[in-house]
Design a protein that fits this description.
about 300 residues; 5-stranded mixed sheet; globular
Length: about 300
């Protein structure tokens, strides 16, 4: 049915899930499937071989596709072929990913990019928003990622790994990812439950500490749970602090928030803006636009596919 349509595979590798998708040149996501990243890492032959087996199966079903773009959650080499450091998938740090994949699947053309950069490219090409040619994208998920389009071009920094906003120092002993991540959300909720009687009637207090997840907190948020609201307000405060630094460094006034955690943006917005208005003057705030990315959780897959354009 789609043989006349130019199609690509986009892969969004995350700390939680590895997502594969079929994407057209027009940005339409035709098919997607995801696998828990931890399961692929723990497979008998290791992540890369397990990854290639999934990819091979998809390629057998879509024999017209020969180009695959991959988004990676961490630092990659300047030539876009190897992985340097992946904080949330440490077993892949140092892997010569494209060399290994090309040996396993020699008929496929691979492209590699940081996952936040890939998501940013997805919005650049296919956003529902009327974006200027300069904007910042911050992805909020297992960790926090950043990417920027400046005057219509992806900004990679001096050696290929710029805009790592999650790893800027937030205080003396912590980086922003210690406050703005799924792990940080859960830890803050647990700290409040353990150290304050105020939240003992929270929905979250009924969940065993070792079973609490961000999905539980998001579900409680829908029920107007006061602890869940407190957790996301705290998240928003630290996101605001991060954006203050990012805006100062890059002088960018349009910001997109992507990733799974951005779904709760309305609960983060007020404390986020309080920080921004406290520490930035009118030069930055008069035309400041902060909004959720339009491609939502599909930005990583669609953006990875655009690496083949």
């Amino acid at each position: 049915m789609y043989l006349h349509v130019e199609r690509y595979i986009g892969v969004d590798i995350g700390g939680t899930n590895t997502k594969f998708g079929i994407v057209t040149r027009e940005g339409e996501l035709l098919y997607k499937i995801k696998y828990p990243t931890a399961e692929l890492v723990a497979s008998e032959d290791g992540y890369i071989t397990a990854f290639s087996k999934v990819l091979k199966q998809i390629l057998l079903e879509y024999p017209d596709i020969h180009k695959v773009g991959i988004g990676i959650p961490g630092l990659i080499s300047n030539d876009r072929r190897s992985l340097l450091r992946l904080a949330n998938i440490p077993s892949l740090s140092g892997a010569s990913l494209l060399d290994e994949l090309e040996a396993l699947l020699p008929s496929v053309q691979f492209s590699l990019e940081n996952d936040a950069n890939a998501a940013c490219l997805g919005e650049f090409y296919f956003s529902e928003h009327n974006l200027p040619d300069t904007f910042l994208m911050v992805t909020l998920g297992t960790g926090i990622g950043g990417a920027a389009i400046i005057h219509g071009k992806l900004f990679n920094g001096g050696h290929g790994n710029g805009v790592e906003v999650g790893h800027m120092l937030a205080d003396k002993n912590s980086v922003y990812e210690d406050y703005i991540s799924k792990k940080a959300l859960v830890q803050y909720a647990l700290d409040k439950l353990q150290n304050s009687e105020k939240y003992q009637d929270s929905i979250l207090a009924q969940i065993p500490a070792d079973e609490l997840t961000t999905k539980d907190i998001e579900s409680a948020l829908k029920e107007k749970d006061k602890l869940a609201k407190k957790v996301f307000a705290h998240f928003g405060k630290w996101l605001g602090k991060n954006l203050v630094s990012s805006i100062r460094v890059l002088d960018i006034h349009t910001i997109l928030l992507g990733g799974g955690v951005s779904k709760a943006f309305k609960y983060m917005e007020e404390p986020m803006m309080n920080e921004i208005k406290t520490y930035l003057d009118d030069y930055y705030t008069n035309d400041l636009v902060i909004q959720k990315a339009s491609l939502k959780n599909e930005a990583g897959i669609i953006g990875a596919a655009t690496l083949n354009f």
